[in-house]
Amino acid sequence: MAVDQEVARRRTFAIISHPDAGKTTLTEKLLLFAGAIHIAGSVKARKASRHATSDWMEIEKQRGISVASSVMQMEYRGCVINLLDTPGHQDFSEDTYRVLTAVDAALMVIDAANGVEAQTLRLLEVCRARNTPILTFVNKMDREVREPLDLIDEIERTLNMTAVPFTWPLGMGRSFHGVFDLRRDRMRVFRPGADRLDEQDEIIEGLDNPEIALRFTENVAQARQEIELIRGASPEFSHVAFLAGEQTPVFFGSAINNFGVREVLDALVDLAPSPGSRQALQRQVQPAESMFSGVVFKIQANMNPAHRDRIAFVRICSGRFERGMNLRVVRSDKDIRTNGVVSFLSQRRELLDIAYSGDIIGIPNHGTLQLGDTLTQGERLQFTGLPFFAPEIFQTVEIADPMRSKQLKLGLTQLGEEGAIQVFRPHAGGALLLGAVGTLQFEVVAHRLKHEYGVDARLASAKYQMARWVTSDDPRELKRFIDTNAHRVAYDAVDAPTFLASFGAELSVAQESWRLIQFHRLREHA
Ligand code: G4P
Q1: 387 is in an annotated binding site
Q2: With respect to CATH, is domain 14-65+105-272 assigned 3.40.50.300?
Q3: What biological process terms from GO does the record include (predicted)?
Q4: pLDDT class of 333 with cuts at 50, 70, 90
Q5: From 1.10.150.120, 3.30.420.40, 3.30.70.3280, 3.30.930.10, which CATH number describes the 387-524 domain?
Q6: ∠ at Cα 99 (351, 47), nearest 5°?
Q7: Residue of the nearest CA to atom 33 in ligand 1?
Q8: CATH superfamily, region 279-376
Q9: Cα–ligand 1 centroid distance for 63 (angstroms)
Q10: What's the mean per-residue pLDDT of the chain?
């Protein structure tokens, strides 16, 4: 098949949700449809261990299993679907943000009892900033939940999108009877039961079919009224508005009962976009170009501590990947061989022979690849848009045993490159500073320093509370700023200067006094 045909049949997306809304369950069901049940098993296994352990031990464990399940690929209706997992804990949302730069669409899962929750909101912000198209699945209709009209209203208000229901529930909880498919004018009758496909589901044709009222009496009138209301109130679905992230199609169901899930999968195939063009500093890159290009959006290190191996996750942006081909790392201008490149077709990592735009490939390496790196067949391209967020919590790091300082440095460099934490080197010297978006990140780093690098690190809270990357069109002005504020400036992993402040007023004073300096909350890898 030609590259453009392969691109056209690809769908790359992530599921975003607040913890416990049902992401794991839904993932499992989606995989079930595509016949990839063995992976579904691993998804379940990962989840099963959750309750037994403390939070960060679990993250540690997940890291072990998640290389296999952090990218899942399946075929459905002739499409190749790449599903990217996103870390669930909010302290790791930074990682999640970067994963979201690698997808072309997102599926938002909402717990119908809780509505739009904090974590969903934050993740949605990132999608909105990139105009990522979003599909919505309202889960757990088999429970006593909130009124569907109320939920639709909340989605529209909090997410600032028009919600266009594609299905509508008939009842909820004990009297949940099924969903109306508003586009195909038929009803899918609910029957509880987890591990089955929906082929056995009973379908009643026609929303006005008198059989519906005869069988489900009490809720029918209400559901019909609601449907009339939303048909009157919400606009027609517009594919253009959906692709622009302005409209979201909404589906109701119950993931655990595998109910209403197929409609979502079908919508992914029918509505979600195939890989589009991507912006590089130099030019716009088209997915069906013949030459390969890709960008590293995630790095997972030390899956096997004995080998210090790490896998760089690369989103293919154009062309076709073939195993063994030479790829140029544009940053370092070095070529790498790709004999060991893996795909994520199943629970095991598998050697990969061919992949196309939209696919994710894993390249094992020992540090030659960093977050944000662009790979090409020689062209000097640098993809933009991989975000790093200004940390909000800082700790200093020191070690008990000075003999281990080399290991500490190595460990911090590698963990920094992986994006697990941000490491800052103060301009004035002294202990390294660690910056994080969530406190849990520190615990994980301390734990990993000890177990992977044999370093007992002492972390102590630092006086800073905010950081801003500083730039200026005038290099002399930037130098003057750095010299004047020497005790408040530190350099990050790529040596970008950062201004550190202990409280908000300090930052605003600096901003007012230094008009030619720009202060950034977000650094895009470039
Ligand atoms: P997450 O990945 O988003 O964190 O959520 P996950 O799928 O783990 O689901 C969270 C809980 O919600 C699980 O229950 C799961 O069984 C339940 N759940 C998911 N979908 C549905 C649904 O459609 N209806 C109902 N009633 N429950 C649903 P748990 O008690 O945490 O785990 P378990 O004991 O069921 O394994």
Answers
A1: no
A2: yes
A3: regulation of translational termination
A4: very high
A5: 3.30.70.3280
A6: 75
A7: 48
A8: P-loop containing nucleotide triphosphate hydrolases (3.40.50.300)
A9: 21
A10: 86
